[in-house]
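Lecture notes, continued. The same structure-token format from the folding unit now serves as the input rather than the output. Read the line below as a description of shape only.
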């Protein structure tokens, strides 16, 4: 007699689903034994690469991480319950497969990354033991419901009959959203006045054809989505960046008037390695310090940020003292002991740094980094252009000068902090307002601004476009509205108003299960099978999930056979690839969910009726 196979359906087949599958296969012998398992992954996009990393997008679009900083395989530093299954990082795979043009510190095209992710998926699928069968279906899941007994039924757009499953995992990845709030108002204004409005979305999927050559276009956002937008509207339309640092336009480019909250682009990635030994992290923001936070309601900026800031400072000054001791006045051990003894927000810490680090440019000023033009008033538009060009040039120079390798120490501390934050969320002590406005809002933006920027040459290209008149900077705290049948943009930092007939929101939409464009997730919300997370009656926009990522319904009940992973859930997951040898959070979360899924499947198999 043989048992009926357990049936798992994973909705989504991108990198998140691949990571989960790898962890499932690793722990299956322990938790499922040799009992049969059928795994079906449903995604209209190619398995492994998924939508974001699919091969059929512009070859001009690059990753914003260096090849040596991207891996899909857990290494010996990863602390998980399941067994480890090491494999090559992106640059090692490229070397093994003879993929040209890829070195450890290169920023590869998304075509190359698509090849890596496809290969990883194939390797993971091939590693499955004989009792695990894996199939993929190129389709969209549009609805899920409880079937007979404990079965789950997953309805697909292209099939009449639903898939039957014992357990379902939603690994939906980046989600589109319908315009809401200000974006809905601006979209309505555009329709009423025959204007062009492009709401937040994944840049590679945008229809940019309505943006005409020479047309004035207002752009809000100076992050990675903006970098992609600029590439597609310049090089993507036949323009060329020349060796002398200039830009030769094709004549097909629109004129981009760009601004954001900070008014400046994300910091460039560093072009050097640490000159000293790596700092030991975490030091001031680890499990011990997080668990010691007050029991009462926590505010991120008030209670958590001082620990985070001190951790960033630790990484920064560790490298400064180790690699550039000639610019310091104290031995590291003396500074480190004194630094550990004082709070971040204290005159003692300020005085310590001032006495130990003579040059002001060598002192870490997080407030100035966060808002470089706070309270700045520009004389005129020309002053804005000059200030922004100077700022961007200085950033490029600093990020390519080994003398400033302390910035890389701060970057490594930021990565450590990112991996520790799930523990803060899991404690359930952050207030709802703080979670939405400070953690998801300010902190995520600050982290991305400092740590998730483009390669430096992209900012050099931005300077060339500015000099060529293709890009025009608006300044900080930019506001966009409609008046007189046109759009207009202004910054409180300068008396300049720019009018245009087109607006592009150069950013991804925030997580919003209420306004999601995903049909399956929308159905879960309408039917009450899923619910938006609220904390202290404050909505976070995310799908509510339990600590082990089970979907929670409108009655607060955890579904025993439905799981969800990703940035759109209250568990959040990771919005970036894992970095080798960092005990990366994506591996830890994938392992936790995989083992919970296997336990649920094991119960299903155990109750199955043997077949003769």
């Amino acid at each position: 007699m043989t048992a009926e196979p357990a049936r798992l359906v994973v909705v989504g087949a991108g990198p998140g689903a691949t990571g989960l599958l790898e962890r499932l296969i690793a722990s299956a012998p322990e938790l499922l034994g040799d009992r049969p398992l059928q795994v079906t992954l449903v995604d209209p996009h190619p398995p492994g690469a998924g939508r974001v990393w699919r091969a059929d997008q512009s070859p001009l679009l690059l990753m914003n991480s260096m090849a040596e900083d991207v891996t899909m395989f857990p290494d010996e530093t990863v602390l998980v319950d399941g067994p480890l299954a090491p494999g090559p990082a992106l640059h090692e795979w490229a070397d093994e497969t003879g993929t040209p043009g890829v070195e450890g510190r290169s920023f590869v095209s998304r075509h190359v990354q698509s090849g890596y992710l496809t290969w990883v998926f194939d390797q993971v699928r091939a590693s499955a033991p004989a009792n695990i069968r894996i199939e993929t279906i190129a389709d969209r899941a549009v609805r899920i419901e409880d079937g007979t007994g404990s079965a789950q039924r997953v309805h697909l757009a292209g099939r009449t009959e639903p898939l039957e499953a014992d357990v379902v995992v939603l690994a939906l990845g980046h989600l589109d959203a319908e315009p809401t709030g200000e974006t809905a108002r601006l979209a309505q204004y555009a329709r009423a006045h025959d204007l062009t409005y492009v709401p937040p979305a994944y840049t590679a999927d945008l229809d940019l054809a309505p943006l005409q050559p020479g047309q004035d276009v207002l752009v809000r956002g100076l992050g990675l989505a903006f970098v992609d937008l600029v590439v597609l509207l310049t090089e993507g339309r036949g323009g060329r960046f020349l060796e002398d640092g200039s830009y030769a336009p094709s004549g097909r480019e629109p004129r981009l008037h760009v601004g954001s909250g900070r008014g400046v682009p994300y910091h460039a990635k560093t072009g050097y390695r640490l000159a000293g030994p790596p700092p030991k992290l975490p030091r001031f923001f680890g499990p011990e310090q997080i668990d010691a936070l007050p029991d009462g309601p926590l505010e991120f900026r008030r209670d958590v940020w001082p620990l985070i800031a001190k951790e960033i400072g630790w990484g920064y000054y560790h490298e400064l003292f180790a690699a550039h001791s000639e610019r310091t006045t104290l031995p590291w051990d003396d500074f480190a002991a004194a630094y550990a003894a004082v709070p971040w927000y204290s005159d003692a810490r300020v005085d310590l740094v001032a006495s130990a680090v003579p040059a002001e440019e060598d002192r870490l000023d997080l407030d100035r980094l966060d808002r470089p033009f706070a309270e700045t008033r520009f004389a005129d538009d020309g002053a804005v252009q000059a200030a922004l060009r100077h700022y961007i040039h200085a950033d490029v120079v600093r990020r390519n000068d080994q003398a400033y390798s302390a910035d890389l120490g701060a970057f490594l501390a930021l990565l450590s902090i990112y991996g520790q934050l799930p523990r803060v969320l899991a404690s359930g002590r952050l207030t709802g307002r703080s979670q939405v406005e400070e953690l998801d809002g300010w902190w995520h933006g600050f982290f991305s601004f400092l740590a998730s920027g483009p390669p430096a040459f992209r900012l050099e290209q931005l300077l060339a476009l500015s000099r060529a008149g293709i890009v025009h900077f608006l300044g900080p705290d930019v506001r966009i509205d409609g008046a007189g049948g046109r759009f207009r943009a202004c910054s409180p930092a300068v008396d300049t108003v720019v009018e245009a007939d087109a607006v592009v929101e150069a950013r991804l939409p925030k997580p919003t299960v209420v306004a999601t464009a995903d049909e399956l997730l929308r159905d879960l919300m309408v039917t009450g099978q899923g619910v938006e997370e609220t904390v202290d009656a404050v909505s976070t926009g995310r799908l509510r999930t339990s600590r082990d990522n089970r979907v929670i319904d409108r009655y607060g009940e955890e579904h025993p056979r439905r799981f969800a992973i990703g940035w759109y859930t209250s568990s959040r997951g990771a919005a970036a690839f894992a970095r080798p040898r960092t005990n990366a959070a994506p591996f830890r979360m994938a392992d936790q969910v995989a083992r919970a899924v296997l336990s649920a499947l094991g119960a299903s198999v155990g109750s199955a009726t043997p077949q003769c």
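Point for the exam: The longest helix spans residues 300-323.
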